[in-house]
Amino acid sequence: MTAAQRMPLYDVAFDFLPTITGAWWHFTDFLIYFMLLACGSFVIMSTFMAYQNQRKRPVIAIFVLKRYFQTLIVLQWLRIFSFMFTLLPGSSVQCLYTPTEEQLTGPASNFLEGRAPAEGNSDLWAPPETLYDIMFRIDPATGCGDLMFSSHTIFATLSVMIVWDYFPFKGFKAAITFALALLVPLTLASRKHYTVDVFTSLYVVLIVYELMRLKMPDYDTTQAMEQRYGIIFQIDKEDSLKYVAVVGGHSFRINEDQLPADFKEGGDDFTLPSGSAHGDYKGNFKEHYIHLRKESPPRSPKRGDLGGVSTQSIIPQVLPEASV
């Protein structure tokens, strides 16, 4: 890039926000780490404790992780293609270029043509110079050029979307939303991104998240669970916990709050033979399971017909039964 191309762009927000350095410059990174850690902690907690979201559906880790990483992969691919073709000059401290005296006093061609002389680089300027650096050097905090659009805002906004969509804790929703609102001006004040990078990221994340949820919904109804995953939910009249999930010919005890939201008692109840242990019975249990599968074989929904499948979350969690 020429010296002219290395000069930072003018941003109106920079006129209103003071430049932050030192610990405050790193605070934006720690703020994102906090949001990711908090969001991940609630995902892990959902494997040990049962709670339901505002739509009265059980919150299960596998569906939350699937939604997060599916959306993140699409967003990062869009971002990679975007910054590879925009190559905006970085405005952060490690990216700044100071014109040399020769460039300032000489003809304009010194500034507009040729590669920018190294004398104007910041002391922190350290671009990748070898193929190994390009492929394997990981530097998420002090890169230059990967601006459009902001990865800081991608992770933060996606975490907020996941929390609001899946988790029922009002206090945590307010806290993580406040963290996002604080992150935006701090990112601009640290000069890590331009205003266009941050605000583009905000609406792109929202659009991609909603499109992914429409095109790739969480199939969590009783019918969809059987058709797509081969999981049958039945009532076990001889078991004190009342409910079992039949997966691959084996039975697993589950709690009532792990059932699909549309599960209704009635119909053909699944009952294990007397004296048998869940998952260990090899005789009539398997025959009865095959009979159930023949009674309601899995099928793919017709085009345009979701067959009662909800676009909301979440796959019921199946807990293996302790040995009897």
Quick rundown:
With 324 residues, this protein is mainly alpha-helical. The chain has helices spanning 3-6, 12-16, 23-45, 61-86, 101-105, 109-112, 131-136, 151-166, 170-189, 195-215, 222-229, 284-295; strands at 231-235, 243-247, 250-254.
What does this protein structure show overall?
Residues 293-305 have a biased composition (Basic and acidic residues). This protein is mostly helical. It has 2 domains: 3-215, no CATH class; 218-324, no CATH class. The protein has 12 helices and 3 strands. A 3-stranded antiparallel beta sheet has the order 1-2-3. Helix 8 runs parallel beside helix 10 (195-215). The chain is elongated. The model is unreliable at 267-286 and 288-324 (pLDDT under 50).
Set down the secondary structure blueprint.
Blueprint (H helix, E strand, L loop, with lengths): L2 H4 L5 H5 L6 H23 L15 H26 L14 H5 L3 H4 L18 H6 L14 H16 L3 H20 L5 H21 L6 H8 L1 E5 L7 E5 L2 E5 L29 H12 L29
Antiparallel strand pairs: 1-2, 2-3
Helix pairs in contact: 3-8, 3-9, 4-8, 4-10, 8-9, 8-10
- List how many beta strands DSSP finds: 3
Structural class of the secondary structure composition?
mainly alpha
Radius of gyration: 27 Å
Low-confidence stretches: 267-286, 288-324
Separate helix tally: 12
Percent range of helical residues: 40-55%
Note the main sheet: 3 strands, antiparallel
Mean pLDDT: 76
Tell me the span between the first and last alpha carbons.
70 Å
Q: How many domain regions?
A: 2
Oligomeric nature of the chains: single chain
Mass-distribution shape: elongated
Domain Sphingomyelin synthase-like: 143-209
Transmembrane segments: 30-51
Membrane topology: Multi-pass membrane protein
Biased composition (Basic and acidic residues): 293-305
